[in-house]
Design brief:
- The protein has 2 domains: 18-83, no CATH class; 85-192, NAD(P)-binding Rossmann-like Domain (Rossmann fold), CATH 3.40.50.
- Helices cover 34% and strands 12% of the residues.
- It has helices at residues 2-14, 47-58, 76-84, 94-106, 139-150, 168-172, 184-190, and strands at 28-30, 38-40, 86-90, 110-114, 155-159, 176-179.
- The strands form 2 sheets. A 4-stranded parallel β-sheet has the order 5-4-3-6, covered by helices on one side. Strands 1-2 form a two-stranded antiparallel sheet.
- Helix 4 (94-106) links the parallel strand 3 and strand 4.
- It is globular.
- It starts with a helix and ends in a 17-residue tail after the last helix.
């Protein structure tokens, strides 16, 4: 069993990163690692293919998209706003790798990630944006480079530092902030009221 795991690890390590440039939008394609990992193809010429699931929420009112309370009318403008907004993922480990992949393949193009940790050999079994050659490197920088090389039109900016090193103004520049943290102390720090965005006020409501 151990020999099989080592063999699979070596096979993945030999695979070369390839940008996601498909012939058919939405078609799954095996990576060069012998099918050990699969990646969704991205049609950079048609954003509709990348946004088809998010459009369901952006272009139609419903129980999962309460636009009326915020004074927003569902439609193309909402979808365009999401596409252009800045997103921050705090943590680039087990949760962060999945979040970064999902956001990039969903069509978000301006993503930032913060993580002060470096890659350990024990991370490789679940943090799939990293390879054996990356051991000892910054998680944030390695994850950002992996996404930037593979997803056309998406740019991930890495911040290899503690979350406390940034002030409130830094966090408030983002429309969406997602926590990929598992430790209690940093999660409590991120939950401080000073980092919360102001509530949406419908047009005509008293200030």
């Amino acid at each position: 069993m151990a020999e099989e795991e080592v063999s699979a690890s070596q096979e993945v390590e030999m695979g070369e990163a390839r940008p996601l440039t498909p012939a058919q939008p939405g078609q799954a394609q095996a990576s060069s690692a012998g099918g050990a990992a699969k990646a969704m193809d991205v049609d950079s010429g048609s954003m509709d293919a990348r946004w088809r699931d998010i459009y369901r929420f952006c272009k139609h009112d419903g129980p999962m998209a309460l636009y009326e309370a915020a004074g927003i009318e569902a439609g193309q403008e909402v979808a365009d706003g999401l596409h252009a907004c800045k997103v921050l993922v705090i943590g680039a480990g087990g949760l962060g790798c999945e979040l970064l992949k999902d956001l990039a393949l969903s069509g978000f193009t301006d993503i930032h990630t913060i993580d002060m940790d470096h890659i350990d050999l024990s991370n490789l079994n679940r943090q799939f944006l990293f390879r054996k050659k990356d051991v000892g490197s910054s998680k944030a920088e390695t994850a950002a480079r992996f996404i930037n090389e593979r997803v056309a039109g998406c740019h991930v900016t890495a911040h290899c530092c503690a979350i406390e090193e940034f002030d409130t103004d830094f966090y408030k520049q983002f429309k969406i902030v997602i926590s990929g943290l598992d430790a209690i102390a940093p999660r409590r720090w991120c939950a401080r009221p000073s980092l919360a965005p102001p509530p949406a006020v419908p047009p005509g409501a008293p200030s």
